Amino acid sequence: MKKIDKGEAPAFFTDFVKKECPKVWDDIAPIRSRLRKYISENEQQGYCAYTEIKINDDNDCHIDHYRTRNLFPEKTFEYQNLLVSCNVEEYGAKYKDKHVKGKSDYDTLVNPVEDNPADYMEYAFTGEVLPIDDNEKGMKAIAYFNLNQRSLLNRRKKAILNLKAMKGMLNEDELVEAIGEFETMLRQLYAVLD
Question: What is the pLDDT of residue 145?
Fold first, then answer.
């Protein structure tokens, strides 16, 4: 998970909300695909907001309400609450949405828009995501987004093997681009790799 710098809402979204006055999320269906693409490309560089895996097409992702609509209906159309996440039940936003039980859960959970996840979590050479100094926000983010789920762990292990194999051949930016996902992990481990 990496820090996401949300910009201002794009004009097509604010204009639509102002003109159409949507009441429920499905009311934005005419612009949802465009909004998803905008957020993914302009703010998340084509990566899942929570796992940093590469999103290849519209079927691989959805717009997540970081603070869920059922608990925070007033945030349904709040742009700062909208992130793009992978479409996987076992980890990421869909996993979070099944495990968050109440509003107070968000008080101790890393929000990649408001928090810098690197202040709470780090990566091991095993591919595991670890809380820094056993802090609660890091532990809960790892649990609520299931960041150490087996297939994610295996993908990160492969990325680490590639990092080790290519370190002497490419600089840090070239390596991150060549591997194509898990940028935060790669940059952190690149800095400490002998």
Answer: 97
* Residue 153: pLDDT over 80: yes
Residue type, 33: S
The pTM (predicted TM-score) of the whole model is: 0.93
Residues whose CB falls within 8 Å of the CB of residue 12, separated by 6 or more in sequence, listed in order: 31, 34, 35, 38
| Residue 160: closest CA among 130, 117, 123 | 123
User: In whole angstroms, what is the distance from residue 51 CA to residue 77 CA?
Assistant: 23
**Please, which residues bridge with residue 47 across strands?**
54
Contact 137, 108 (CB under 8 A): yes
Map tokens 């790892």 to a residue. 142
- Strand-pair category, 82-86 with 61-65: antiparallel
Helix (H) or strand (E) holding 85: strand 82-86
Estimate the crossing angle of helix 183-192 against helix 150-166, to 10 degrees. 50
Angle at the Cα of 152 from the Cα atoms of 147 and 155, rounded to 5 degrees: 145
